Amino acid sequence: MTDKQLLLLLRKGRGRSMTSESYRVMIVDDEYYFRKLLTNFIDWPQYGFVIDQEAEDGATALELARSGQYDLIIVDINMPGMTGLDFVEELRSSHIQAKIIFITSYDIFEYARTAISLGASYYLLKPVDEDELIKALQEIRLELDREAENTDYFEQLKEQAERAKPLIKQQFVRQLLMHEQSVKQDVLDGQAEYYNLPLNAAYVVVVAEIDRLSERFHKEEERQLWRFAVKNVLQETLEGAGAHCEVIDGEDQLVVVLAGFPEMTDSALYGLCEHARTFIDHRMKLRTTLTFGQIYESLDQVHLSYSESLYALKQKFSNGDNRVIAFVQEHIDAEDAVFSTPLNRVEWLAVIRQRNAEAVLAKVDDICAKLVHNRAGKEIALFVLMECVSLGSTAILEQGGTLPVGWMTDRHKLFGQIYSLETISSMQQWLHLFFNEVVFQEMNDPSPKRRGSDIVGKATAYIEREYAQEWITLQQTARELSVNPSYLSHIFKKETGKTFIEYLTDVRLDKAWEMLRDLTPDGSVSFKVVDVSQKVGYADPYYFSRCFKKKFGVVPSKLLQ
């Protein structure tokens, strides 16, 4: 159900006007004695009604109906001046939906037809028959009871909708920002009006990201508190300049503000954002990056401003944090530009092999400066970072060194920080640490071979213990030992002269030889071969037999004969 449909539904409810347990009735007739006769004709409360008012002409009755609220009006058609038909037509024009019983002394078809068109509940002839009047009142009472129940339901629904309105409004704003609107303009305007969003405004989206939020504050409660503080500062700053603001939580812990100004320019908006950022930085000691998109004149275009704000936020990686970044159309293709030959591996390896830390760090600074100049996006920058890591690991292994435990995994303190790097500057600092505290320390360690032997020793012991498990692999063993699979493969071949799989195969087949030599030749030979193959980690006995013959020159069954 759309918001507009909900509003129309809620507006259908009509409030009850019962006095205690009775519905209110007004009698309209120019004959005084008939009014008194009708008042005393039946026991009205017995049927759920009370005579609340009388009127001798249509004009007086209309004034009473507009100032009060009546559930049932009994009106004579033939009155001087304003007739009963004219009176009810005026009621309907005033959106007064009281039930109507017409009474008349004339059985004229045209009267009856007009009465029906005006929504009359009953049409009675004078003199009024008591049974007919009671029947009419009973049916009208049932209708009013049903409407009263519906009114109660709609009132409850309206109350629930009002309570949920702030949340629904946030969802509406989120839809405006996330998606191009497919509804018609008048429907969108109706929704905006319902949620009190100005239609004639210059709209722009401002995005705020607290720099290194998760790194500084480890508890979600703290992060929520600081985001709330930033929301308040932004909202007060923009509203102080005349904006209507809607603030929501964006993805990845962003603060998103949809601001509608009577009028606004890019330079004035930049000044407002810089004022807010400075306040947050100096008073709250929070480094915060603010971005904003272009200004649009229609709500159905704010999704463009939001997309532009997010795009501008990507520039934080090259521009740096704790600043205001405005979307610039000319930079739209910079992120996709080809960063040709970012690293010359030969030159870099030559410098690293010489253990010239100063020269290596100079090359790091130079490549980072090029990334900033080219406005490189985070993806390209991380590609360069991984190239540096590859160069460092190559140099370590060339020197017979050992890659640290947890290499290239989150278990390593330094590598666990890679995907939280927010700027090229922070990436530059990371690479300085990488080369100084990891690469050169490993290359200068006097006992790398012993440590490499320790890892290989643990790997061979693991194989001796788990060779019967079909699932044992190089990758699984590396995880067990908390080392990089490529590094384990390298030092394993270097220490044992065999690849990991060659070593595992030899252990399994040697164990199988011992088992087969210990078996007696009686019973089923094929069953025993299958049993042995499974015990040494081979699910396929035919593949086991081929491997066995390749190593020992005979098939397993020959050992049992």
Automatic annotation (TrEMBL):
InterPro entries per the UniProt record, alphabetical: CdaR_GGDEF, CheY-like_superfamily, Homeodomain-like_sf, HptR, HTH_AraC, Sig_transdc_resp-reg_receiver, Tscrpt_reg_AraC-type_HTH
Keyword Signal: no
Keywords annotated in UniProt: Cytoplasm, DNA-binding, Phosphoprotein, Transcription, Transcription regulation, Two-component regulatory system
PANTHER family: HISTIDINE KINASE-RELATED (PTHR42713), TRANSCRIPTIONAL REGULATORY PROTEIN HPTR (PTHR42713:SF3)
Keyword set includes Transmembrane helix: no
Subcellular localization, as worded in the UniProt entry: Cytoplasm
SMART domains per UniProt: HTH_ARAC, REC
Stretches assigned to the HTH araC/xylS-type domain: 457-561
Modified residues (4-aspartylphosphate): 76
Residues in Response regulatory domain copies: 24-141
Official protein name in the record: Response regulator
